Amino acid sequence: MIKTKMFDLEKIIRPNIKKMKAYSSARNEYKGNEGVFLDANENPFNNPYNRYPDPLQNDLKRKLGEIKKIDVSKIFLGNGSDEAIDLLIRAFCEPGKDSVLSLDPSYGMYQVAADTNAVDFKTVALNPDFTLNVGRLKKAIDNTVKLIFICSPNNPSANHFDKEDILYIASVFDGLVIVDEAYIDFSPYSSILNELNNYKNLVVLQTFSKAWGLAGIRLGIAYASEDIIAILNKIKYPYNVNILTQNVALEALGNLNEKDKWVQTILLQKQFLMEKLKNMEVVEHIYPSDANFLLVKVKKINELFNYLIENQIITRNRSKVTLCEDCIRITIGNEVENRILLEAMSDFEDQFL
Fold first, then answer.
1. 31 confidence band (pLDDT: 50, 70, 90)
2. What is the separation of C-alpha 109 from the centre of its chain, rounded to a whole number of angstroms?
3. What does the alpha-carbon distance between residue 329 and residue 293 come to, in Å, rounded to a whole number?
4. Spatial distance between the Cα atoms of 38 and 26, rounded to a whole number of angstroms
5. Which residue from 122, 124, 125 is spatially nearest to 99, judged by alpha carbons?
6. What does the alpha-carbon distance between residue 201 and residue 147 come to, in Å, rounded to a whole number?
7. Domains and CATH numbers, the chain
8. Residues 109, 248: Cα–Cα separation, whole Å
9. Angstrom distance (rounded) from CA 336 to CA 225
10. Distance of alpha carbon 130 from alpha carbon 124, whole angstroms
């Protein structure tokens, strides 16, 4: 473990957030599931959806905590990881004064959330091979930076960043280091989650949208110290995760083996797709991937992208993103979908190369 400097959460929380009193909902004040509920002005009919959901999602957190081996007090659940990203910026960054720091290229919502909250957004360029330049990142930290967002495995480059590099940044930084692990289930590298107790300024984001196959229910997770989670709970909307989402997620957590099978199938399909793509004339380079997608440099990027669209095959054109010139991002589909993609790319080669 890297020796860390003393981290003081009180020094970075916004004063108005520290002083504010959290809204107390009816379901905060009464924790039971049984009784005659006449406290929340709900419709008494249409059970079970007439009642407000558990505002702290306790049943879901307990199940998730068992799987992750982490205490429920260190878990925040939100409307996608985007909610946690937004709340972290709102809680710790003064508009027009503070800033957040991230990597370039990386997930675009970090900047959207910063811009929405009138917080300056700064970036540090990755190396040409998408690796992390620790010295450059450390040098970019000034007294305005309160949060550092690191997506690992990264989007759109698909590569992970060395855990020791991330922990080093956490050890020398006075603010929060937020590691977004949306794609961690597809990575051969372990989660940084087991370092939470050693680094009090570490926040880890995960999601139900990728490996769990539940993007449609919009459920994201933040893991952090009890004090950080308490702040997020203080400022979130009272009922931010609905009953339907909680029930579907609970059901999914009871089918861990199914999720693991999906992950293994996707990884096998990724290997299959890489083997086929590397022999295609239209493909110039396939970047290493620790995620469920590939970043692929191709010839005639715009023509290929549009040709695929015309054949109802939707990829992402990333050629305008830093370091991603002439690149498309391809999500790994099922075997049928992947073969359809390969056939279309082969047809493109025959017609245009």
1. confident
2. 10
3. 7
4. 10
5. 122
6. 10
7. 9-22+58-254 (3.40.640.10), 257-352 (3.90.1150.10)
8. 25
9. 43
10. 11
